């Protein structure tokens, strides 16, 4: 069963212009067009948009979400493992940032710090994070690669 863009919007609670943006960004692709030239979307597009909304809510950027969806659809477990490590490293980094900010907040409440000390504490986060993770993730430093669009036409 296929959905119109209006039905997809209603089912996912995502506005039509946003769905069109995700379509242009190759996150979703209409499976077929009807006789009246309207795009038709599959249930997989509903699931993709639900994951996209979740991914955005936890801080993933569109390129990361697209990459996870693509790696999952082609069954690339090795790439997914690398991305999972990247996410774990990011989580450790965010945990360290949270703890540092809590510590700064406590020092401010007690009147035990000044702007230079706060900035010093924040600047030391990078070296503190390096000691937490033995190897920094290559995923974070790789330039973004353009995503391959789903196509029914095999490559030449």
Structure characteristics:
156 residues, mainly alpha, 2 domains, 8 helices, 64% helix, elongated, disordered C terminus, MerR-type_HTH_dom, transcription, MerR_fam, repressor
| Overall form | elongated
CATH class call of the largest domain: Mainly Alpha
Strand content: under 5%
The count of β-strands is: 2
Determine the N-to-C terminus distance. Answer: 31 Å
List the domain count as a whole number: 2
Main beta sheet, described? 2 strands, antiparallel
What is the residue-averaged pLDDT? 81
Low-confidence stretches: 134-156
In the CATH hierarchy, the third-tier topology of the largest domain is known as Multidrug-efflux Transporter Regulator, Chain: A, Domain 2
Question: Considering DSSP H and I runs of 4 or more, what fraction of the residues is helical?
Answer: 55-70%
What is the CATH-assigned architecture of the largest domain? Orthogonal Bundle
String of helices and strands: HHEEHHHHHH
Report Rg.
21 Å
Number of helices: 8
Strand order of the largest sheet: 1-2
SS-based structural class? Answer: mainly alpha
Overview of this structure, please?
- This protein is mostly helical and 156 residues long.
- The chain folds into 2 domains: 5-74, Orthogonal Bundle (Multidrug-efflux Transporter Regulator, Chain: A, Domain 2); 77-141.
- It contains 8 helices and 2 strands; from the N terminus they run ααββαααααα.
- It has helices at 5-12, 16-24, 43-57, 62-74, 77-110, 115-123, 125-132, 138-141, and strands at 32-33, 39-40.
- Strands 1-2 form a two-stranded antiparallel ribbon.
- Strand 1 and strand 2 (39-40) form a beta hairpin.
- Helix 5 (77-110) crosses helix 7 (125-132).
- The chain is elongated and about 70 Å long.
- The two termini are 31 Å apart.
- The model is unreliable at 134-156 (pLDDT under 50).
